[in-house]
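Study the following:
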Amino acid sequence: MAHESLVKERLAAESKPCISGTPKWIHIFFLLTLISVCISQNLYAEDEWKLVKNADDIEVYVRPYKNSNINECKGIITIPASIDIIYAIISYAPLHKKLMHTCYESFLVRPWEKGCQVHYFAFTAPWPIGNRDLLYETCAKFDREKGNMVVTSRVVTDASVPVNGKLVRVTDSNNTWILEKLGTDKTRVIYRNYFNPEVKYVPKKIVNLICEDVPFYTLINMRNLAKEPIFKELAPKYRLE
């Protein structure tokens, strides 16, 4: 009887939930899982684009840019033109003043060499920001397998183009063109732009609202330029092999 009583006591004890404490490995596993979730959510938040405009077959998105109060903007459009024509529009610096929103002067500084060129832009900007200019080094890469292109630009300096005292030289800007070949005469264009006008006394919200117009109107300009005969003529010259 004593033996049966002891067995019953053990069974009863084993059937009760453990209240003396959770094993340490479970705490560690839970903590690591929580950290992993937090990191992944943070990375996703940094990469998350917010749609701010969808009009005229153009989508415009914004997201915070690293270490800046100025947003990065992205515009997406599909243009009924070959990828070579679209690339020629991006490559031909003298007519960037017809491509880039509010650009009133553009010219080539250094011609294409090893896949890169340097070119100049001057932009109008509403009061109280004032007009700006910059020098971009633009480089292109061609995906032979897919037929797509990626064109990136970053701000550089060049002694041959001194600072104009009437303009503010921009030193913090970059952009990326992603050209996806959808057909012989159909190209999806993704234009990402970060432009910090470096103004001190204008609220960043106002600057960001102004910057949202850049990809929208630039892509409208590109769609119109794709119809002009000059770029069909220039396409073979700039074609990447």
Remarks:
- Residues 65 and 71 are 5 Å apart (CA to CA).
- Residues 16-20, 36-46 have pLDDT under 50 and may be disordered.
- Strands lie at 50-55, 58-64, 71-79, 103-113, 116-123, 132-143, 148-155, 168-169, 173-183, 186-195.
